[in-house]
Design brief:
The protein is about 65% helix and about 10% strand. By secondary structure, it is α+β, with helices and mostly antiparallel strands. It folds into 2 domains: about 200 residues, no CATH class; about 150 residues, Reverse transcriptase/Diguanylate cyclase domain (Alpha-Beta Plaits), CATH 3.30.70. The two termini are about 55 Å apart.
Length: about 375
């Protein structure tokens, strides 16, 4: 796992900075452990002030939450634990307030159930069932129980009165305020983390879509549209730094004849083979695209005099590869050659003009024997 060997502080720091997103199981486990720990503290508190029955109840509540923490498995389990927790918290807040009195502040626990309801109903539901209906129902139910608790506490004296000192009451009240604030804070953080996670996922999806839209599906090279972006950037860089670049157009020789004789499947294999050879032979910083049909355009950020030997090496490499084709008489190796037209960017030229000149050099090579590299400087 990615976080093995890391300290808790490192993991917390990564969560806080948004570089790591805890999973739903981790979140719900943390919540259940926290609730179990809170009930352990309340058990000690109620024993200390003489409310033994409520202390025993808190022992069972602590066991429930700690058991839930180790039984997390899937979204259905999360939602079931939320329902059980919702009932337990409302029941506890309502009846303990009636038994002990409003001044202890146990009804405050219900306030935290609003963000909890929205968070749980969102994260524990499938995408097509995520809406505001269910958490809104839970929130208004909580409001009803909270107001009912307040009205009954104002109307009736505590059902289980004890002579509790003001200090112990204050401890309970401030503890409950802290727990309520902390719970609201934690779920606000969880919401923020989920938003950050969704944004990261959306960025990845957008990048994947951008990659798909810029890649030729057959050759896995850039397509013409994406190459247009690279060419514009290269022109802008020339204007900024003066660094020259060269455009090369390559065309597979006799490709129509290959398709006519051997079929389009073999033609596609030839295109893929040429693309692989280009990627293996050209420098890593060369940008290659399938310009259209059997034509390829190569952008190399070097002047023409340095580019021609690179393209010549590519031409030779392509002339050495072949693919086996099964025939009734046996297996035949189908070789392939390419002709290339090279042209350097000239200050003041449009990119269309540069490509047009490279295309003229290509046409010249096609008309004079094929399987060659033609540039404005020399012909090989």
């Amino acid at each position: 796992m990615a976080n093995e060997g890391k300290s808790r502080f490192q993991i917390f720091k990564e969560i806080w900075t948004g570089s790591y997103f805890p999973g739903e199981r981790q979140k719900y486990t943390l919540i259940s452990v926290a609730l179990g720990f809170i009930h352990i503290l309340l058990t000690a508190y109620f024993f200390a002030i003489g409310y033994g029955i409520i202390a025993v109840y808190n022992i069972f509540s602590a066991v429930y939450y700690l058991t839930a923490a180790v039984s997390m498995s899937n979204n259905k389990k999360f939602f079931g634990i939320f329902i059980g927790s919702y009932i337990e918290i409302v029941f506890f807040s309502f009846f303990v307030s009636l038994l002990c009195g409003w001044d202890f502040g146990f009804a405050l626990f219900m306030i935290a159930l609003a963000p909890v309801s929205f968070f749980t109903c969102y994260t524990a539901s499938s995408n097509n069932k995520r809406n505001l209906t269910l958490p809104t129902i839970f929130t208004f139910m909580t409001l009803f129980f909270f107001l009912a608790t307040k009205l009954l506490c104002d109307r009736y004296a505590p059902l289980y009165p004890k002579n509790v000192s003001p200090v112990m009451k204050a401890i309970a009240y401030y503890f409950n305020v802290a727990v309520t604030f902390y719970s609201t804070f934690v779920f606000a953080v969880f919401f923020s983390l989920d938003i950050g996670k969704k944004e990261k996922e959306l960025e990845k999806q957008n990048k994947a879509l951008a990659d798909i839209s810029s890649i030729d599906p057959l050759t896995k090279l850039f397509n013409r549209r994406k190459m247009g972006t690279f060419l514009d950037e290269a022109v802008a860089k020339v204007k900024e730094t003066g660094d020259l670049f060269t455009v090369t157009i390559g065309d597979i020789d006799n490709f129509k004849m290959i398709n006519d004789i051997h079929g389009h499947n073999i033609g596609d294999e030839i295109l893929s083979l040429v693309a692989r050879t280009m990627k293996e032979t050209l420098p890593d910083d060369a940008i290659i695209c399938r310009w259209g049909g059997e034509e390829f355009l190569i952008l190399i950020k070097k002047p023409e005099i340095d580019t021609v030997p690179i393209i010549e090496a590519l031409r030779y490499a392509i002339s050495q590869v072949s693919i086996p084709v099964s025939k009734p008489t046996g297996t035949v190796d189908i070789g392939v050659t390419m002709t290339f037209g090279v042209n350097q960017y000239v200050h003041g030229f449009t990119i269309e003009k540069v490509i047009s000149l490279a295309d003229e050099h290509l046409y010249y090579g096609k008309s004079n024997g094929k399987n060659r590299v033609v540039s404005s400087k020399n012909e090989i």
